[in-house]
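Appendix B. One record, verbatim.
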Amino acid sequence: NQKSWDIKPMITFRGLVTLISSCPNLRKLGLVFDATTVDLPTAEKPGGGVCNTNITTFDVGCSPIEHPLPVAVALSAILPCVGQFNTELVELVEDKEERQTKWDEVSKFISVLASVRG
C-alpha cells in the first residue's frame, strides 16, 4: 500500500519553470516536485531567463532531493528572492531527516548565492 509521499512527483524543474512563467504575478508557492534531477534546458541560464521576484518563501512539502547545490543554483536563478524553503515531512517518509538536511543546505547555498549577487 503506497502512500503519496512514497511516489516520486511527476512535476520536474521544467514544470516548475513553466508554472512560474505562466503565472508571473504569483506571490506564494507551495509545490511538491521532483528535485532529484535539475532538468533545465541550459546550465548557463537556468530557467531560460524565467524569473519571479515576488515569491520569498517556497513550501516544498516532502519534495525529494538528491544534490542541494545544483538545486540551489537553479532555484536562485528562477526565484531569486526566496530565502526560505519550508518542508512538511511526515513521520512515515523513510528519508525524512536526510530530505530536511538537504533542503536546509539549499537554503544556506541560496543565502551565499544571494550575497554574491549583491
